[in-house]
Design brief:
- The chain is α+β, with helices and mostly antiparallel strands and about 300 residues long.
- It is built from 10 helices and 11 strands.
- It has a 5-stranded mixed sheet, sandwiched between helices.
- Helix 1 packs across helix 4 and helix 2 packs antiparallel against helix 3.
- The longest helix has 27 residues.
- It is flat.
- The model has no long low-confidence stretch (mean pLDDT about 80).
Length: about 300
Amino acid sequence: MSNIDIDKQTEIWKTKRLIKTLPMARGNDKSMVSLVIPPKGNISMMNGMLTTELGTASNIKSRVNRLSVLSAITSAQQCLKHYSRVPPKGLVVYCGTILTDEGKEKKVSIHFEPFKPINTSLYLCDSRFHVETLQELLDNDSSFGFIVVDSNGCLFGRVTGSTSEVIMQFAADLPNEEDQGDLSAQRFGRIREEKRHQYLRKVAETATQVFISNNRVNETGIILASSAEFKHDLQNSNMFGRSIKAKIISTMDVLQGGIDGFNLAVSLSPECQSNIRMVQETKHIEKLFDEVSLDTGKYSYGIMDTLKALDM
């Protein structure tokens, strides 16, 4: 396991621990702030909103509740001072005064960048911390890569849970009929075919750069979205490396490229993702049969034997 994988697993473990411990904390009235800012959020605007909340909270009649709420909001503002801008994956903040098992008050101040992009804005001042957004990150841990190709250019995107992002895109330099000029049809055809081959080669090479790190494909699966012509040429060539080709679990026809084509492909992805689960299950079964045929001892079947193996 690479250092990157270890770091991610550590962050996931920390998130799971927070999800388990934070909901059990309780405070007086609305003295606990839960704040989630997505990657494209603005620190200054959030600070301004919290300043407005301070003004509102100052009108709370109960002195104890007023001071608790003011303290929590002020703590949240102090946390934001650690950041000049929202981190690339967003920002999560939990601040407030909680009651310990002994009935004593304890101040809590937690702020961190989640282990993957968060696509939700949240501000709640309540008697408990809200961790539902963190739970969604764990529920939607699989990510799917998208390659969207047309005659104008290529876009590489990623979808993780409800979050979609454009990783990179580049324009195509393919000649059209207006560029033929005085060239013969045969010579122009050769030039056009050569340019087309270079373009598709660049698509394949860029896919390796985008989706592979540490000699491993980062995505659960890759979806190729293109016109039938480009899709056929890419699928039936050896341009894609073995690792990328093995991860292409679905293809789809789209009539446009760029961000519109990406959004269209994403909107069709639920059907593709159900196929992804089928592909994964098929591979697991094939792996089981391989272990049985080789008599490696690294397998079990039947309810009782499987449960015993899980308890080992």
